[in-house]
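Task: fold both queries, return C-alpha cells.
Query 1:
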Amino acid sequence: MSENVPEAAVAEYKRGFACVDGEFVPAATASVSIFDHSFLYGDGVFETIICRGGRLFALRPHLDRLWASCQYLQITPPYDQEQITAFITELAKRNELSDGYVRVVISRGEGYPVSDPRKALKPKLVISMQGAPAVTRPPGVGVKLAIASTRRTPPICLEPRVKSNNYLNHIVAKLEAIAAGADDAIMLDLEGNVAELPVANIFARHGDTLATPPSNGILAGITRETVLRLVAEGAAGPGLRVVQRVMTAYDLFTAAEVFIVGTGSGVAFVESIDGRRIGDGTMGPATERLMDAYTELLGRDGAEPDLQLTTKEA
C-alpha cells in the first residue's frame, strides 16, 4: 500500500498485493504500460482460479489451458508453470488469502501502438487476487437470465477454447441482459442454438437426463468439466445421466430445472429466463445435490482433478 494512501480509503478489490513480472507490489499502485498490447487490443490471455480454505482448485488444468491459449496466439509465457505456481503461492501468503480468487494474465507485452504482434516482443505476467466474488446471492435466490440477441462469436471467426482478454462479445450480451432487468445473458450461436453465458456454462434437466451444449462452440469451462465428472459419479442423484447435445431455448423453457456453472458463480440455479419461471422457480434437487458436492470438493485436500479441456468433441 502506498504510504500516502490509507488502506481504508482504497477500494477493497485493490487492497493487498499483486505480482507483476515476479515483483510483489501493492495492488493499488500496480501498473502496466499504456502501450501494452493487451490494454490496447485485448491481445493476451487469462485464467481465474478459485481458492477455498487456502487450497487452489484445479490449478494445473487452469495453467494448462493458459499455456494452450498462449500457444494458439503465439505468445511465449515469460515464466514456466512452476515459477507461476510459486508466484501464486507467495502472493496468497502475502495476501493471507483463504477463500477467494486468483487471476493470472499474460499479455503480448508493450510495443508500438499498432495491431501488429511483431511490435510487442516481451510478454508480461500479472497476478492479482480477490477475497470475495463480485456478486453474492442470498440462499434460495436464483439467477434471472435473458436471451441476448448478440450471438456467440462462431469458431470460424475465433477459436472459443482460447480464453483471451477480449470479452467484448460477452460484454455486449451482458449489457442487453442488464437492460432487460436480468442478472446475466444466455448467448445463442448463429443457428439459434444455446451456447453459453458470458462467464458460465448452462445445464437443463428433463426427467433423469441433464443436458448441456456441446463444447465445440463454447469455452468449455473447468467447472463444467468438474460437474460432468460429478454427475458421472452419481453426485446429482441416482439414475441421472448427462448428455452433451444441441439445445434451443425450448429445452430451457420446458426444463424441470436449469442451472449455471462457473468459477465465479459455482453451481447456481436459474429462477427465470426472459421472465418465464423455470420449474417452480426454486432450486431443483439435482442442482442442490451438485452444489453440495461441488462445495465439498472445493474443500477437499488434494482436490486436483485430471481434466482435459483442449480437445474438441467429435
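Query 1 returned. Query 2:
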Amino acid sequence: MTVTPTEYPQRPIPERSMSQGEESGYDSPGSTTPCSPEVYFSSPHLKHLNEQLQTLEPEEILKWCMISLPNLYQTTAFGLTGLVTLDMLSRINAGGPRQIDLIFLDTLYHFDETLELVDKVRGRYPNTKLHIYKPDGCANARDFESIHGDNLWDTNDDLYDYLAKVEPAQRAYAELSVKAVLTGRRKSQGGKRGDLDIIEVDDAGLIKVNPLANWTFQQVRDPIAEGEDERSGRWKGTNKTECGIHNRRSKYAEYLLQEEQKKKEEAIADALRKVESQRAI
C-alpha cells in the first residue's frame, strides 16, 4: 500500500523562539482567559537552572517542578524510570491538592505485559489520572494496518514514528494545554542521552524535565549485550538511538514543515503577482 505524505498534515504547535538576551518569565493571559500562563526561559536562565538542579536529588527536582511549572504532566511508557518517578510523585503529593496526570502514547503494538502493567498502575495510584493517546483514527493494530499497511516500522520507520508517537504526542499537548512534561530519560541509558540536561526546551517551546537524568541503575529489565546501551535492543541493527518524540524533530515532521513553508511562500508569491497585475491595469 502506498502512503503519500500529504495525507498527514502537521498539527500546529505554538512556537516561541528564545534569543540570547530575552528575559525569562511568565506570559499571563487576560483576566477573562482561564488558561495557565506561558513559561519561558532565556538561555542564561536555563543554564543557571540546570547548574542548580544538577546538584539536587530527583524528589527535590520534582518538588521544584510542581511549584514552578503550570500545566505539568508526566509522559511515560511505563518503563522502570517512569514508574520510579510516578511513585516519587505519589509520595510527595500524598493527599495534596495537585496531582500530576500521566500521558501514555499507546502505539497499539505494546506487549500484553505492558498493558497489564498499565492496569496495575491504575489500581495502585487511583488518584493519578491517565490520558491515553493512540494513532489518529485507530482503535487497534488492525485499524492501523488497514490504513498504513503492515510492518510500517520496517518499511518507513520515520513515518511510523510520526504516526504512532509524534502526532499523538502533539495532539495530547494541544488538547491538554501542556506546558511542561516529566520524562523518564537518564544519561546512563546511553546514545544521545549521555549529555542530558535536567531541563530542556524543544523547538516548539515545550519544557521537558528529566528528574532522574543523573541516576544510574546496575540492572535493567531487559538483557543487554556487552558494549550496548540499555535501550539499544529497541532499534538493533539500525543507527537509531532515540524515538521520534525526543528528536529535535522527526524527519517526517520536518518534511511536513518544509512543505507547509513552501505552500506559504507560493501563496505569498501568487498574491504579489496579483497585486502587480492590478497595478498594471
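Both queries returned. Flag for query 2: Confidence is low (pLDDT under 50) at residues 1-9, 13-20, 219-236.
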